[in-house]
Design goal:
The structure holds three protein chains of three kinds. By secondary structure, chain A is an alpha+beta fold. Chain A contains ten helices and ten strands. In chain A, helix 9 packs across helix 10. The longest helix of chain A has about 35 residues. The radius of gyration of chain A is 28 Å and the shape is elongated. The N terminus of chain A is likely disordered. Chain B is about 25% helix and about 35% strand. Chain B has two domains: about 40 residues; about 140 residues, Sandwich (Ctag/Cox11 (Pfam 04442)), CATH 2.60.370. Chain C has a single domain, classed as Cytochrome C Oxidase, Chain A (Up-down Bundle), CATH 1.20.210. The mean pLDDT of chain C is about 95. Classes of the chains: A alpha+beta, B alpha+beta, C mainly alpha. At the A-C interface, helix 1, helix 3, helix 4, strand 7 and strand 9 of A face helix 3, helix 7, helix 9, helix 10 and helix 11 of C.
Chain lengths: ~400, ~180, ~525
C-alpha cells in the first residue's frame, strides 16, 4: 500500500519526470542495484555489460537519431504545409500533381540513408554469430514455468539445477508489500565468471520459451527438440535480471532469469560448492532419516511447493485435497508416482526433477502424517531414488 | 459478356486459392530442403551416412560436446557416456549414450538430434545412430545406445566446437497402439 | 427492374444489394471493435498496477489472444471489406458487385465464425490462450480443447475473406464504367484491388496452417512436433508467410482511404498518383519476401538474418514515397480541417511514427533487444490503430453524409478526434519506453520499475475506449436526427463518381453506366 501511494504521488507531482531520461529520486535508487538494471521511468535501452551489447546499443541509438532527424524533416514539412496553406488564410489551391525531381529524390535519398544503417547493422550481426572458443558452456532449458541450467563439465558430473521464481504469492496478490525485485528474483541464480565468454545452449522441455537477459544482450528462443546457441562475455560484475520473452502459457510472466556475474575465484568456489552439494546429497541418500527430520524438512518443502495449490492444511484449492485423500492414505508407490511423475492432463506437475530425493521423501512423509492423515509410515530418500530408478 | 468474363475470372481465382492452399502444404518439404541446404535449426540427416575413405586431418582438433535432454513427460535416465570428445576431421568416432526406463511399464522413445552451430550440421555425419530408430525399453530396462560419427574435413575453419544434443520424446502411445 | 429494399429482416438476411451488405459489414465490424476493445480494457485494467488484481493469468492470456484475433479478423478486415462493398461500385460506376449472391454468403459466414470463436470463452478449459500468432506446440499439444473450435472459426472466416476478395477483384476488373482505365481508378479502388490479390494468395496458406494444426491435434501427424520429425519453427514460417502480407492487407485499404480524403480537403489533386500505385504494388510484393523478420531470435542462419533485415529495410522506400506524396498533396493546397481530414492527418503523422519504429525493428541485432517486448506492441498499435482504425473513422465521417443524406455533428466529430488522439498517444507512446526498459509482452504482471508508464498507458486506454462510445453516439445521432443535406458534393473539394449521385444515395445507383472522361 505504501509503495502504491508513493507511486501515485510521484505520478501526480512530477509530470516533468516523463521527459527526464532517468529519474534520480531516492526511491528509484532503491530499486536499482546496478546501472545495467532497469529503473523507474526508464525510457531507453541500457548499453549492457558486454562489448557486443554496447555495440548493439550504439546501432540502436544511431538508427534512433536518424529516425529523429527524418521525423523532424518530414513532420516539419507536413506542419509547414498545414499552417501555410490553410484555406482560412485565403490560400488558393495550386493544381500540380507531379514533380519528377522531387519524386526521384525522395526515393533515392532514403535508399542511401538505409544503406548507411544496414552496413553497420550487418557488421554487428556477424559478431553476434561469432563462433570463437568459449570458456564456459551452459545448457539452458525452458520449462513451464522455470529455467534449468546445466553447466557442461568435461570432468565429473555436469552441475544442473532449476531456477524458480521466489516472489511469494502474497506479494503477487497484494496481501503483502512488494519488494524491490518483485517478479525478478529466483532461488538459484546462474553464476558466470567475469570477462569470460559463456556460451548458452538453449532448448526447451515443453513449449517454446525465450531466454532473455537485457544486460547481456542475449535473447534466443528455446525450442523443444532443438538447440540454439548465443554467447556473452560480461566485463562487469553484478546481478542482471531478465525474463522469458516468448508466450509459453499461464505463468509466462512468472519465470524470471537472474544471472550473477562474479570474479573467477568466487565462481570457482560457487561451482565446487554446487558439486559438493550434489555429492553430499548422494551420500545423504544412503542415510536413514528420523521421522522428526523428515517431518521438519517436509513441512518446509510443502510450504514452498505444495501449499499454493493444495492449501496450507491440505484442504485443497486449485489442486486436490490432501487431507484424508486416497493418494495420501493409499499405497506408497502410488503416492510416489503422483509426486515424482505428476498426473497427466491435470495441473499436478512432475516434481521428480525439481526436488531432490530428500525433499521428495520428506514431503511425501509429511503429507502422509500431517493434516490428520496419521499413516505412520516413512519414506526414505533411498526409496525415492530406487523408485526413480525403476524399483518399486 | 461481362458475365462470361466474370465467371472465367472467378474460376481462375478459385484455382489460385486451391493452388495457394496446396502451396501451404508444399512449404513443408520446401522447408526441409531449405534446412538441409542451410543447416537451419541444426537438423541432421535422418539416415546413415555412407562413409567414404578419406585421410584423417590430424592438424585440426574439433571439440564435440554431447547433451542429453528429456522432453516433457519423459523420465528416462538419459546421458552421454562422455560429455566431451576431441576428434580430428575425417576420423570415425564411436561413443554411446545410456538410457534407462525407470517406470513399471514398457515405453518407447524417439531421440531427436540437433546440432549447434547450425551450419556445422551438414558437416557432421552419423554412420550409426540410435536416433535412426525408436527405442523400446521394458519396465526397468537399461541400454547402451551406440553412436558413430565422422566430422567432415570441409567443416568451416572457424567452427571449433560442435554441440550435438539429443532430446528424448515419449512416443509410447502412438507406437504401442499401432502394434 | 428498379425496386426498393425488401421489407423487414429479410432485407438483411437475403441482402444482395452492395449498400445493404456494406452496411451489414460496417455494423458487424463495429460491434466486433467494441467487443475486442472491451477485452483490451480488461487487459489494461489488470495492468493498471503491478500484482494480480482482477483476473488470473490464464484468463489474461485468453484476453490478449481474443483481443488480437477479434480486432484483426473481426473488426479491421470486415470494416474495410464493408467499405469496399459500399464504395467500390460507386467509385467505378457499377450498379452492384459482380457476384451479389456470393456477397451475401461471404458476409453471413462472418457472424457464424465469430459466434464460434466467442463461444470458446464459455467452454471447458477456456478460450484460446496462445496469442493471436498461435505458435505450436503451445497451440497444439498444450492447447485447451477449444482450439478445435478456434480452427473452425478461422476456416470459416478465411472462406468469407476469400469469397469477398474474389468478388472485389471480379467487380473491379469487369464492371468499371466505360472510359475508366486501370490507371484512372480512384486510389482506394487500386489499393483494394491489390489487397484482394494478397488475400487470395495468403488466406489459403493460413487455412493450410490451421489444417495442419488440426491434423497434429486429432489425426496424429507431426507437422509441428519434433517427436515425429516435424518442427515447431516451421509453423512460424508458415504463419508469417501469411502474417506479413496480412498486416499489409490491413493497412493498404487505409492508404486508399487517406489518398481519397487528403486531396478533397486540400482542394488539390493527389500528388504522384502513378507512384502511389507503384508504391502500393511494391509494398505488396515485398510483403511476401520479408516474413522471417518476425523471427530474428528463432535461430536462423546468419545469411537468413541479413537477407531478411535488408529486404525489410527496403519497405521503407515505397512507404516513404507515399508519405511524401500525401504531404505534397497538402503542400500549396487550400486546406480545411474537418473531422475526416483531422483523422487523415493524424494517420499520416502516427503511421509515420509506426514506420520509424518499424525500421528500428528491422535492424536485426537491435531487434534481439526489442523482440517480444512492449516496443513491438507500441509499434504495431501505431500502425494498426492509428493506421487502420483512424483511417476507418475518417472514412465513416467522410462518406456518412453521402450514405444517409444527413450531416454529422462536426463539433462532436472534432471532440471525438481530439479525445481519440490524446487517448491513443497516452496509451501507446509510453509503451515504447517500457519496451525498451525491458518489459516483455503478454505478461499479466510486471516488475515495479515498469509501473509508472503502465499506469499512464492504462489511463490512456480508458480514454481512448470511451471516445469510441462518443463515435457510436455521433453516428447513430446522425442517422436519426442529423441535419438533412441533399447536396451531391458534400465536400467542396471532393472528386469521384460517388459524388455525382444524389444524397442520400438511392437504393440503386448507376443502373446505366456513367460516361467517364
Amino acid at each position: 500500500m505504501h509503495l502504491k501511494g508513493k507511486r501515485l504521488k510521484k505520478l501526480i507531482s512530477s509530470p516533468m519526470a516523463l521527459f527526464a531520461l532517468s529519474s534520480t529520486s531516492a526511491l528509484a535508487e532503491n530499486l536499482v542495484e546496478n546501472s545495467a538494471q532497469a529503473e523507474r521511468w526508464q525510457m531507453n535501452l541500457k548499453p549492457g555489460v558486454t562489448e557486443l551489447g554496447q555495440e548493439i546499443y550504439d546501432i540502436h541509438m544511431l538508427v534512433f537519431w536518424i529516425c529523429c532527424v527524418a521525423a523532424v524533416f518530414v513532420f516539419g514539412y507536413m506542419f509547414y504545409a498545414m499552417f501555410a496553406y490553410r484555406k482560412s488564410k485565403g490560400h488558393e489551391p495550386a493544381n500540380f500533381h507531379e514533380h519528377a525531381v522531387a519524386e526521384i529524390s525522395w526515393t533515392i535519398i532514403p535508399a542511401i540513408i538505409l544503406l548507411g544503417m544496414a552496413w553497420p547493422a550487418s557488421m554487428t550481426m556477424i559478431k553476434v554469430y561469432d563462433t570463437t572458443e568459449s570458456d564456459l558452456d551452459i545448457l539452458v532449458t525452458g520449462y513451464q514455468w522455470k529455467w534449468k541450467y546445466e553447466y557442461i563439465l568435461e570432468h565429473g558430473e555436469n552441475v544442473a539445477f532449476f531456477s524458480n521464481l521466489t516472489t511469494p504469492s502474497q506479494q503477487i496478490h497484494g496481501e503483502e508489500a512488494k519488494n524491490n525485485n518483485y517478479l525478478l528474483e529466483v532461488d538459484n541464480p546462474m553464476y558466470l565468471p567475469v570477462n569470460k565468454k559463456a556460451r548458452f545452449l538453449i532448448t526447451a522441455n515443453d513449449v517454446i520459451h525465450a531466454w532473455w537477459v537485457p544486460a547481456l544482450s542475449v535473447k534466443k528462443d528455446a525450442i523443444p527438440g532443438f538447440i540454439n546457441e548465443i554467447s556473452a562475455k560480461p566485463f562487469k560484475t553484478g546481478t542482471y535480471r531478465g525474463q522469458c520473452a516468448e508466450l509459453c502459457g499461464k505463468d509466462h510472466g512468472f519465470m524470471p532469469i537472474v544471472v550473477k556475474v562474479v570474479e573467477q575465484d568466487e565462481f570457482d568456489s560457487w561451482l565446487s560448492e554446487k558439486q559438493t552439494q550434489a555429492a553430499e546429497l548422494a551420500e545423504l541418500m544412503q542415510q536413514e532419516m528420523s521421522m522428526d527430520e523428515l517431518l521438519a524438512q517436509g513441512e518446509k518443502t510443502y510450504a514452498g511447493k505444495c501449499a499454493a495449490c493444495h492449501g496450507s492444511n491440505g484442504e485443497g484449492g486449485v489442486g486436490a485435497v490432501i487431507k484424508g485423500s486416497k493418494v495420501a492414505t493409499g499405497a506408497l508407490s502410488w503416492h510416489l508416482d503422483v509426486v515424482v511423475n505428476g498426473v497427466a492432463g491435470t495441473m499436478m506437475q512432475a516434481f521428480g526433477a525439481q526436488l531432490n530425493a530428500i525433499e521428495l521423501a520428506a514431503v511425501i512423509t509429511y503429507q502422509r502424517n500431517a493434516f490428520g492423515n496419521n499413516m505412520g509410515d516413512k519414506v526414505q530418500p533411498i526409496d525415492v531414488h530406487n523408485f526413480k530408478q525403476g524399483g518399486k | 459478356m461481362a458475365d462470361q468474363a466474370t465467371s472465367t475470372l472467378v474460376k481462375k481465382l478459385m484455382l489460385a486459392v486451391v493452388a495457394m492452399f496446396g502451396f501451404g502444404f508444399a512449404l513443408v518439404p520446401i522447408y526441409d530442403v531449405f534446412c538441409d541446404l542451410t543447416g537451419l535449426n541444426g537438423k541432421t540427416s535422418g539416415s546413415a551416412y555412407q562413409a567414404v575413405d578419406v585421410v584423417v586431418d590430424t592438424s585440426r582438433t574439433i571439440t564435440v560436446q554431447f547433451l542429453a535432454s528429456n522432453n516433457d513427460k519423459m523420465n528416462w535416465a538419459f546421458k552421454p557416456a562422455k560429455t566431451i570428445l576431441r576428434v580430428h576431421p575425417g576420423q570415425a568416432v564411436n561413443t554411446h549414450f545410456f538410457a534407462k526406463n525407470p517406470r513399471d511399464y514398457t515405453m518407447v522413445a524417439q531421440a531427436i538430434p540437433s546440432i549447434s552451430p547450425g551450419r556445422a550440421a551438414e558437416f557432421f555425419h552419423k554412420t550409426e545412430c540410435f536416433c535412426f530408430n525408436k527405442q523400446t525399453l521394458l519396465a526397468g530396462e537399461s541400454i547402451e545406445m551406440p553412436l558413430q560419427f565422422i566430422v567432415d574435413q570441409d567443416l568451416p575453419k572457424d567452427v571449433k566446437t560442435i554441440t550435438l544434443s539429443y532430446t528424448l520424446f515419449d512416443v509410447s502411445e502412438k507406437s504401442l497402439a499401432s502394434r | 427492374m428498379s425496386h426498393g429494399p425488401a421489407k423487414g429482416l429479410s432485407r438483411w438476411f437475403l441482402a444482395t444489394n452492395h449498400k445493404d451488405i456494406g452496411t451489414l459489414y460496417l455494423w458487424f465490424s463495429f460491434s466486433m471493435f467494441l467487443l475486442g476493445g472491451s477485452f483490451a480494457m480488461i487487459i489494461r485494467a489488470e495492468l493498471f498496477q503491478p500484482g494480480l488484481q482482477l483476473i488470473e493469468p490464464n484468463f489474461f492470456n485468453q484476453m490478449t489472444t481474443m483481443h488480437g484475433l477479434i480486432m484483426v479478423f473481426g473488426a479491421i478486415m470486415p470494416a474495410f471489406v464493408g467499405l469496399a462493398n459500399y464504395m467500390i461500385p460507386l467509385m467505378i460506376g457499377a450498379p452492384d458487385m459482380a457476384l451479389p449472391r456470393m456477397n451475401n454468403f461471404s458476409f453471413w459466414l462472418l457472424p457464424i465464425a465469430f459466434a464460434i470463436l466467442a463461444s470458446t470463452l464459455f467452454m471447458d478449459g477456456g478460450a484460446p490462450n496462445f496469442g493471436w500468432t498461435f505458435y505450436a506446440p503451445l497451440s497444439t499439444t498444450y492447447a485447451p480443447p477449444s482450439v478445435t473450435y478456434f480452427i473452425f472459426g478461422i476456416h470459416i472466416m478465411g472462406l468469407s475473406s476469400i469469397m469477398g476478395s474474389i468478388n472485389i477483384i471480379a467487380t473491379i476488373m469487369n464492371l468499371r464504367a466505360p472510359g475508366m482505365t486501370l490507371m484512372k481508378m480512384p486510389l482506394f479502388v487500386w489499393t483494394w484491388l491489390i489487397t484482394a490479390f494478397l488475400l487470395v494468395a495468403v488466406m489459403p496458406v493460413l487455412a493450410g496452417a490451421v489444417t495442419m494444426m488440426l491434423m497434429d491435434i486429432h489425426f496424429g501427424t507431426s507437422f509441428f512436433s519434433a517427436a515425429g520429425g516435424g518442427d515447431p519453427v516451421l509453423f512460424q514460417h508458415i504463419f508469417w508467410f501469411f502474417g506479413h502480407p496480412e498486416v499489409y492487407i490491413i493497412i493498404l485499404p487505409a492508404f486508399g482511404v487517406v489518398s481519397e480524403i487528403i486531396p478533397t480537403f486540400s482542394r488539390k489533386p493527389l500528388f504522384g498518383y502513378a507512384s502511389m500505385v507503384y508504391a502500393t504494388a511494391a509494398i505488396a510484393f515485398l510483403s511476401f519476401i520479408v516474413w522471417a523478420h518476425h523471427m530474428f531470435t528463432v535461430g536462423m542462419p546468419l545469411v537468413g538474418e541479413l537477407y531478411f533485415m535488408w529486404a525489410t529495410m527496403l519497405i521503407a522506400i515505397p512507404t516513404a514515397a507515399k508519405v511524401f506524396n500525401w504531404i505534397t498533396t497538402m503542400f500549396k493546397g487550400s486546406i480545411t480541417f474537418e473531422t475526416p481530414m483531422l483523422f487523415s492527418i493524424a494517420f499520416v503523422f502516427l503511421f509515420t511514427i509506426g514506420g520509424f519504429t518499424g525500421l528500428m525493428l528491422a535492424i536485426a541485432p537491435a531487434d534481439m533487444q526489442y523482440h517480444d517486448t512492449y516496443f513491438v506492441v507500441a509499434h504495431f498499435h501505431y500502425t494498426m490503430v492509428a493506421g487502420a482504425i483512424f483511417s476507418m473513422s475518417a472514412a465513416i465521417y467522410y462518406w456518412l453524409p453521402k450514405w444517409t443524406g444527413r450531416m454529422y455533428n462536426e463539433s462532436m466529430g472534432k471532440v471525438h478526434f481530439w479525445i481519440s488522439f490524446l487517448g491513443f498517444n497516452l496509451t501507446f507512446f509510453p509503451q515504447h519506453f517500457i519496451g525498451l526498459a525491458g518489459m516483455p509482452r503478454r505478461i499479466p504482471d510486471y516488475a515495479l520499475q515498469f509501473a509508472d508508464f503502465n499506469m499512464i498507458s492504462s489511463i490512456g486506454a480508458f480514454i481512448y475506449g470511451a471516445s469510441q462510445l462518443l463515435f457510436l453516439y455521433n453516428v447513430i445521432a446522425t442517422i436519426k436526427y442529423g441535419e438533412k443535406t441533399t447536396v451531391k458534393k458534400t465536400w467542396e473539394g471532393a472528386n469521384g463518381l460517388e459524388w455525382t449521385q444524389p444524397s442520400p444515395l438511392p437504393y440503386h445507383t448507376f443502373t446505366t453506366p456513367p460516361e467517364f472522361k
